[in-house]
Design a protein that fits this description.
The complex is a heterodimer of chains A (207) and B (291). Chain A has 207 residues and is α/β, with parallel strands linked by helices. Chain A has helices spanning 10-15, 33-44, 52-65, 102-109, 122-130, 143-147, 188-205; strands at 2-5, 21-30, 69-71, 76-78, 86-89, 113-116, 134-137, 150-157, 167-181. The chains are: A alpha/beta (207), B alpha+beta (291).
Amino acid sequence: MKKLTLPISDEDISALKVGETVLLSGVMMTGRDAVHKWLNDAFIAKIVEPTEDDIAVFEAIKPILDGGIIYHCGPVVSGVDTGNYKFVAAGPTTSIREEPYQALVMELFNLKGVIGKGGMEAKTLQGCIDTPAVYFHAIGGAASLIAQSVQEVITVHKLDFGVPEAMWIINVKDFPVVVTMDSHGGSQHVDVDERSKKVLEKLMAKS
Amino acid sequence: MQNLTKEILELIRRTSTDLPDDVEAKLRTAYTDEEDGSAAQGALDTILKNVDLARSNSTPICQDTGTPLFYVHYPEGLSTRKIKKMIVDAVTEATKLNYLRPNSVNAVTGANTGDNSGDDHYPTIHFEEVDENLPITFELMLKGGGCENVGAQYKLPNVAMHAGRDLAGVRKVVLDAVQKAQGKGCAPGILGVAVGGDRGGSYLASKETLLTKIGTKNPDAKLDALENQLTEEINQMGIGPMGFGGKTTVLDTKIKGLHRVPASFFVSVSYMCWAYRRRKMTVNGTEVIYD
């Protein structure tokens, strides 16, 4: 099984193909709906003036995301009241909600990938080709198991977004994922969708 | 009445961390059905390992502990106000203990309450009165947002799908809903379908069908046949676990027929993810039984 350590190089990304299983290690960041909207509004579309705190957080996450990965995840975390954070349950959330922003966020940070579930669509697939980057699929619902690959919670940004929506900076070891969208335009999600559509058409023709 | 907060807390712990036997057994069958070494089988292997781990460590099976959906059957004379307070207290405590994720977000302000307290509809509690000599029962279902998002409601007739106001039409829209869901609802899923009702009642009934065990025979022979047909046909689509391709897209289909007004014919599909977390507690005096 292939092992990759963050930050990941363009060469390593280019070598990844749909269907490959990879174990990821290193420092990554969780980010989902609120984070992507915040990044878009304050730093991409610039429809909201970033606060001092926004700018400080942005500068802090930049080096982690350069060659790095955003994990679409809203974890269950213990020690929120003491600051002694530990991931208790941390499976992927459905990625498609980030479709409007993902390619832009990839480009903004030189992101090498996102981890999520359910796959993404054309805009993100183009982002994977351009950046280059890949979409890693984790197993949805496997939250207790995935939490075990989180060795350490380094820090958290924007905890006021709420525990599930905050940016958790985590150090992971051998996080198991499958490449389902690669940097060459390959997408397992397109293949499965097309195949199932053909079966559906046949079933619909029967009454 | 006696304070049942602790017992409800235990119900929440079991629901979040201990997958029911019937679901696990079905997932194990799916594992053996999938091709050796396939991505589908790999996904099921991870799922089953996670089920074991969550149970032994008492940690959530899935981090999305969903909307807590309570169904309470209470004997005549008990106060639903008091029961609601116990449920809300137990939910808050379960959040502190990390059996539940703080999941309650004010949709207008975006603020997370941090303890799963919400409003009149969150947590969701359905009350039904029963005879005074019967025990009080609590059923809890934790349904995550990913699968909730792929649920769908159709009104018949649907011209594009050639779906009329009959069971043949129902079949077509359910097939459509699952094809559109792909792996996004964490397949393999379980389908709860309601035929008829108004929009709200229809969705409600579609979820209530999910309170029964996998494989429960439908008392209506026609609906039972349609359930089996749909499960079999959907599994021909090749969506598979997580949408990785494969033989197992759904584990079961459950259909309930309702009454409707002449003008409306709704079909509501609630998609439950493989992490089909539902548990029941029966309180008979001092005796508490967890199913």
